[in-house]
């Protein structure tokens, strides 16, 4: 006899439980996330200096600006999405 399939909400809840359990057992959170931070930093450095010709300090400054632009763009898209959702909800009434 097979188990019933999980709903999307149940799968989400199961994943959240696993994530919380995992973080509860992590003694050094900074060390655990270091590879992801290093990868993100590398992405922005590649974006601003694909040939690798800039001095490290200049590359770091430009990468920081690219990172800021990326997160501002995400925030803008999120705010715009919420605005459109509110607008559409109001116009359906």
Specify the number of helices: 3
Give the tally of β-strands. Answer: 0
Strand content: under 5%
Q: Please state the structural category.
A: mainly alpha
Cα-based radius of gyration, to the nearest Å: 21 Å
Major sheet description: none
Mean pLDDT: 95
String of helices and strands = HHH
List low-pLDDT spans: none
Shape: flat
Gap from first CA to last CA: 47 Å
The percent range for helix content is: over 70%
Notes on the protein architecture:
- There is one protein chain.
- This protein has 93 residues and is mainly alpha-helical.
- 80% of the residues lie in helices and 0% in strands.
- It has helices at residues 8-24, 29-48, 56-92.
- Helix 2 (29-48) crosses helix 3.
- The longest helix has 37 residues, at 56-92.
- The model has no long low-confidence stretch (mean pLDDT 95).
Compact overview of the structure:
Helices cover 80% and strands 0% of the residues. The N and C termini lie far apart (47 Å). The mean pLDDT is 95.
